[in-house]
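Regression test attached.
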Amino acid sequence: TMAGADGGTTDVQWCFSQVKGAIDDDVADADIISTVEFNHSGELLATGDKGGRVVIFQQEPESKNQPQCRGEYNVYSTFQSHEPEFDYLKSLEIEEKINKIRWLPQKNAAHFLLSTNDKTIKLWKISERDKRPEGYNLKEEDGRFRDPNTVTTLRVPVFRPMDLMVEASPRRVFANAHTYHINSISVNSDHETYLSADDLRINLWHMEITDRSFNIVDIKPTNMEELTEVITAAEFHPSQCNTFVYSSSKGTIRLCDMRASALCDKHVKLFEEPEDPNNRSFFSEIISSISDVKFSHSGRYMMTRDYLSVKIWDLNMETRPVETYQVHEYLRSKLCSLYENDCIFDKFECCWNGKDSVVMTGSYNNFFRMFDRGYRQDVTLEASRENSKLRSVLKPRKVSTGGKRKKDEISVDSLDFNKKILHTAWHPLDNIIAVATINNLYIFQEKLN
Amino acid sequence: RASEQNTEEKMISPEKAEEAKLKARYPNLGNKPGGSDLLRKRLQKGQKYFDSGDYNMAKAKIKNKQLPTAAPEKTEITGDHIPTPQDLPQRKTSLVTSKLAG
């Protein structure tokens, strides 16, 4: 039997496959990984970092010699996507950090992705060149021009094979449309348009048009003193090209329909879980802020991540989530220090597996969590160099919350809050996951027998 | 009756206990943390003011005292803190290839 094919989380055994990045502890700011994304086939895996660089890995085809593991990911292309800028007019420093990468569905031999920093979105074309023309009449092979007088016969240049070269070139630059900081980009299912969202506005772009974008959501109050919430994430529905959602710092999600009106300030649906007023505290709103929203592949559900939990919402029910999973509830009694060291503002992302049966998100101490929706099981795993032997199975980890700490458990006070896993990605089809620690990228695969 | 009351007191939620801790450390903390102050601070990320006139005036005002560096209160957005040339980090592009590709 195929281990873990439709089995629960505890049936699937995750094995270390690869780790990318430097081993040393001295992490340069630029090396901090800021986004991780598989393309639609899972063949390519892109990362963006704080230094504005993109690295794309490609999966090697499965080897007949090693059927027990799927192909390795090796570097395919790397380029500088964004550079630091300074807006002198506004005295604003613009970071080169790549906030998000989103792949376009593949239409031809080339691959396209959108990458964005705080202010500018760029469309990159990644293409392969494995042939070059040879046998020109007017040029030597090294490029020098031939004296036309020496040309006595004509020949037709031919393409000859060459070593594979992967080139990345910026095809479009979508700039000057965001006053605030871009937090999300999302490609529409029409493959022609995409949205970009900042703290207060969402814009709709056409891939071919860079000098114009339509503003579709604007929550900026006339008087900024009245500002009570900001947009934290936005995403297009996977199949309904007229539908998108955006989440807020107050824990709400709004679903909008672009057919209803040009400006989607009025939502069609508002998803919000009622709060018990007796439980309200200074921290309530901060920890309810949604850091990520992701539609399921089916388009029937969406998942949100707030500071302590992951929630699954049925698009047909606005009143409360259908499932809630506690990521690290033990942090509730540490909120004071997490506020003081700013960790309470960490923005964790979340992702679905290809079948929408398991969801994953990161935590601290380089732990990450998986929740199996059907089997109601969850597991905590760790991305660390200690567990980095090829194909070694990851052992589940446990944080002890009570007074007594069992062997192999780690106490809450021993957790390293600098080791945060904010970005994770799941291969669209297989059980292969990419987990980013601060500066390393781990790839884990399901153990196949 | 007395033991019932004690149990009730012990059942303060961990969140509220943490809130009490925070308020004890920062008595001037406002009651609306998610309100405009925190959000506006977030929107102002990246703002770097350096005006030599302001800088010199601020220096003259405080005379021999040190210019305050970080805002001690989380609710303060702008104060008298003017970035000094030493505060502003050196900006340069990452011309080095990412270590992930190494």
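Expected vs. actual: identical. The first helix of chain B runs from residue 2 to 10.
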